[in-house]
Specification:
alpha+beta, four-stranded mixed sheet, 2,3-Dihydroxybiphenyl 1,2-Dioxygenase, domain 1, 2 domains, 3 helices
Length: 156
């Protein structure tokens, strides 16, 4: 098996257009694909492990990667609201975004409708990190690597 790397992160949101606007502006990303399906679609249901599913989606490109956003119309959610779950709970819990200036990025998240949940922590080596939430409840980690954390620069 030849693994080429992580292709994208997928987020399910309650309002696809709002999410495209938020992440497009925050990450300087553009929509490169749109997709949708409506029930009944047994092949899609089989692939995603649901029954009677319907959804609209968008693939965004920019900032050195891809982000996939989905708004499901069916079936009804059975879990709790992601805005109420903490960073310690099981499952995909946050989207980490490397930035040059954590404070500036946090201000931008809030400006775009996200929520500040705490203050950045900083190390003597120049790294910094803070969690916040997008307008849909997803936890975002804004981080700068300094000299002590792995950086996207290390991938080049």
């Amino acid at each position: 098996m030849n693994v080429r790397g992580i292709h994208h992160v997928g987020l399910v949101v309650g309002d696809l257009d709002a999410a495209v606007g938020f992440y497009g502006a925050l990450l300087h990303m553009e929509v490169i694909e749109r997709d949708s399906w409506r029930a009944p679609d047994p092949a899609i249901d089989s692939a995603v492990g649901l029954v009677g599913s319907s959804a609209d989606g968008a693939m965004l490109r920019g900032s050195g990667g891809f982000l996939e956003l989905w708004q499901y119309h069916a079936p009804e959610p059975v879990g709790d609201d992601p805005a109420r779950r903490g960073a310690h709970e099981r499952g995909l819990r946050h989207l980490a975004i490397e930035v040059d200036d954590v404070d500036e990025a946090l201000a931008r998240v809030v400006e775009l409708g996200g929520t500040k949940t705490g203050e950045p922590i900083r190390s003597e080596s120049g790294s910094a990190a803070v969690y916040c939430r997008d307008p849909f409840g997803t936890i975002i980690e804004l981080m700068s690597a300094g000299t002590d954390l792995a950086s996207l620069d290390d991938l080049a």
